[in-house]
Amino acid sequence: MKKLLLSSVVIIVGFVFISRLSYLQLFSFSPDQTLEDPAIKAIYDYPERGYVYDRNGELLVGNQPAYDVMVIPREVQPLDTLEFCRLLGIDKEAFISKMKKARTYSPRLPSVLVPQLSKEDYAGLQEKMRHFEGFYIQKRSLRYYATNSAANVLGYISEVNERDLQNNPYYVAGELKGRTGIEKQYEETLRGRKGVKYIQKDRFNRDIGPYKAGKLDTLPQQGKEIRITLDKTLQEYGERLMHGKRGGIVALEPKSGEILAMISGPTYDPALLVGRERSRNYTKLHYDTISKPTWDRSILAEPSPGSPFKTLNALVALQEGVIDPSTKFRCYNGFYVGGTKRGCHCGGGMRDMNSGIYQSCNAYFAGTFRKIYDKYPTTDEGMDVWVKHMKSFGLGGYLGTDLPTGRPGRIPDRAYYDRAYGDNRWASSFIISNSIGQGEVAATPLQLANMTAAIANRGYFFTPHIIKSVGNSGSINPRFTEPRYTTIDRKHFEPVVEGMANVYKYGTARWVQIPGIEIAGKTGTVENFVRINGERMQLTDHSVFVAFAPVENPKIALAVYIENGYYGARYAGHIASLLIEKYVKGEITRKDLEKRMLEKTLEHEYAKPYSGEPFKINEYVW
Amino acid sequence: MSGRGLVKRIDWITVFLYAFLVFIGWINIYSTTLTNPEASIFDFSTLYGKQLFFILLSLGVIVFVLFVETSFFERFASIFYISSLVLLIGLFLFGKTIAGATSWYDLGFFNLQPSELAKVTTALALAKYLSDIQTDIRNRKHQLYAVLIILLPALLILPQPDPGSALIYFSLFFVLFREGFPLYYLGILIIVVVLFATTLMFGTVWIGIGLGTLTVLTFLFKKKSTKIPILPLSIALVVAILFSLSVNFVYENIFEQRHRDRFALWLSLEKDENKLEEIRKTIGYNTYQSEKAIESGGFFGKGFLEGTRTKGDFVPEQHTDYIFSSVGEEWGFMGTTTVIILFSLFFLRLIYVAERQKNDFYRMYGYGVISILLMHYFINIGMVIGLLPTIGVPLPFFSYGGSGLMFFTLLLFIFLKLDSNRLRDGI
């Protein structure tokens, strides 16, 4: 015992030491210690963020210098506070509280006193800066917008938050990152890669030379400029037309799937989310829960598509061979489902496909829809076929665009109705509303525009996308250049296109004809409901219009959806026609239409449900 | 005595381990104190250059010790001891103060630290006293004398103040235990330390409850045949609880705030996160930096001369007391375990060598050497890796410092010299 005492002490001590060392060096050790090491400081060299141009090479987004006023509290000498505050454009209380905050953060390290002075403020301040010791100006780069439109498409950038820092080790606190739109989608392209220099520091935070002789240092990689498919002129014009209206517009180039315009109303000036007023503006926009300016209706709103959907039902019926273009249905100013009559405002009488489309006859399409389902022994099978056809047009699912957000819309299938009503507890009368684009079907304006593009191409479409080219190379993701074929044969499209062309010539949109351009379109007037304070109420119908032009060799396909705009031809039809003319001809001949659209607003409609008083819907206003 | 015979009889394993430790130590001092990579390692204006010089001086010490007559150390042990006590007392009059501690004599070219010398002489004196034919370790009076030999220098060193060095002397109790000092003294000592720490951590009430439960359990689970003396046990229980009560009093009223802070940090007594942070930044700063440096070394370390925290001078006193943190950062877990294993082998070898002595004086002195070195190693590394509170004690053979290295060498080689003589006059 006596002899072993000391030996055991030696062994126990060694064991304890090694345990403690393994705890420190094996378990607590973190491999990305270079970032935490106080002896190593990373100094970053930020490349300029890439510019964004439109399809014609017009600048949309660039960069502008901004000037942060920095302070190192310990070095501040007594100063003329009032004069300084006047130059900075802040009041004395704000100055004192900001100084206090900076000092709490660190008396020795620089803090931002006033962020992002404009060039003008900076000019005044610059000359006097030397009187104020402990303050200096740090230049940084901000986004500059060469347009006041397309805010939701372009998106914005903002400082990275805790979550970003955890998810992506690239970012360091204080850096900027694309949040929405193109800035988010093409973040890595636009951002480039920052360069980094590691400096060895001593405990007094003095530089004592490069870390590992600069072996780990990297040079910054420039951000690339990108060209997007938007047409700046068309986009800006569309937003002007949306003045005072809520809704979404998407215009595509059918032969490429390029998005020519993507408009959401109401919108905001993208410059609002840059600079000193950024957070105040953001709060204002973000918390406007009634008009929702940051909610991109062109890709996120999922209303029922309404009558434009009839064209697809016609195509499906032709493909399934259950009708031919001359098949006629009688319209009794409506049609009967079981014992109940559902209305139609086409005027009644015998309808074939052509007049069924251009007069938008509900009875004709209810009959067509029934025929599709009657072909199959059970409703279930009929529905499977119908859903397959519909989905081939990019409906009822995500399109796979290069936009960072989107909605799938809805093509209801068996599973959907089984969930809603119970297995086998529903029948074709439950789903007949889908024949006219009401009921359970839903689609975003982007999906409607894409569907129209597929009709314009007579049977295929390209996945809609916003990227035109990156940097100097013209190549984009190959999935955007692969045509996606619908399940409808090419030959079935002509009768439907003819009907759509006649919508303009004789039909529901004959009042909005544009001289010199042959347009094929389809109006839609969509019943809609809203729940306010727990009370379900019907609002004025949504005005919907899809169109493509010219009928032969189409250059543009678009969908316009105006909330509570009443008849399809009224707002949506007008706006669609003007956009087509603007894009195809470059100038507007129907100045009367243009004037009306630029001036008319629907604010009175939007105010109705919140007025707290009973109101009428679907009023005739002009 | 012939030189050739000496070469054969010296314990080369110990010598190699010693040389290896000194070499690794110097490598780390070089890395820690290097400012200009161009400079020669023999540049005596640099700290590593100076340390190299001290290593050469230590070689001189070794040669000197090996050629001195063996009986010299035994014969003059008492005189050495008394002279070193005189030197320690003299510090009160002529001492030079460095970093707040009056522990040195200024000899012009060299600062002599008598507490280092006294470690050697106390070990010698203790061995001499215990090995005396008239000394009986079972005699209480003789026990007292032995303890006094140990405590006298410690008491003289304490007010310098140099609690670290004073603490080292207590390691010499190991010699007493080896030589038959009742082991239950050690048991009592351990109980006292554990009671002290646990009282601070849990409070007297819980200690009372714990001890009570323990007693009850002992009675419940004892064998029928074993008889437990009830009276002494209850007295012990009462004494323990009284002691526990007195701990609180001592801690609150006799300790100073800086002591309390160290305990608070060590035993995680402070629950207020802000205050703890404050303590960590002040008293715990060295330990914190040293732990971080070691931790950042990982398994393989950052490589020789690549330790960023070592280069940035983040660990205060790194080349002296905190030299082991440099091993941790630059050589990683591989390096630290290697050093721990080397030290352990070194101690085990010394114990083996001590045990093979026939001569009591040799063995007892050997135990003194081991105890002193082991205590340094235990306190120093324990502190550097954050297991023990901050106590300023150098790591033998590693830490920068001429006086330290030379006295450790002296301490060790006197023993090797004695060992080389064991077959000749080991009676």
UniProtKB/TrEMBL annotation, chain A:
Primary localisation category: membrane
GO cellular component assignments: plasma membrane
Name of the protein: Penicillin-binding protein 2
Domain Penicillin-binding protein transpeptidase per the UniProt entry, residue ranges: 247-577
Span of domain Penicillin-binding protein dimerisation: 46-207
Swiss-Prot/TrEMBL GO biological process terms: cell wall organization; peptidoglycan biosynthetic process; regulation of cell shape
Keywords: Carboxypeptidase, Cell membrane, Cell shape, Cell wall biogenesis/degradation, Hydrolase, Membrane, Peptidoglycan synthesis, Protease, Transmembrane, Transmembrane helix
InterPro entries for the chain: Beta-lactam/transpept, Beta-lactam/transpept-like, PBP_dimer, PBP_dimer_sf, PCN-bd_Tpept
GO molecular function: penicillin binding; peptidoglycan L,D-transpeptidase activity
Location(s) in or outside the cell: Cell membrane; Membrane
SUPFAM superfamilies given in the database record: beta-lactamase/transpeptidase-like, Penicillin binding protein dimerisation domain
Organism: Flagellimonas meridianipacifica
UniProt membrane topology term: Single-pass membrane protein
UniProtKB/TrEMBL annotation, chain B:
GO MF entry, a single one: lipid-linked peptidoglycan transporter activity
Transmembrane segments: 12-31, 51-68, 80-105, 142-159, 166-197, 203-221, 228-251, 331-352, 364-391, 397-416
Origin superkingdom: Bacteria
Pfam families found in the cross-reference section: FTSW_RODA_SPOVE (PF01098)
Record's keyword terms, sorted: Cell shape, Membrane, Transmembrane, Transmembrane helix
Compartments it resides in: Membrane
Recorded topology in the membrane: Multi-pass membrane protein
Membrane listed as a keyword: yes
A GO biological-process term: cell division
One CC-aspect GO term: cell division site
PANTHER family named in the record: CELL CYCLE PROTEIN (PTHR30474), PEPTIDOGLYCAN GLYCOSYLTRANSFERASE MRDB (PTHR30474:SF1)
NCBIfam families named in the record: RodA_shape
Name under which the protein is recorded: Rod shape determining protein RodA
Organism: Flagellimonas meridianipacifica
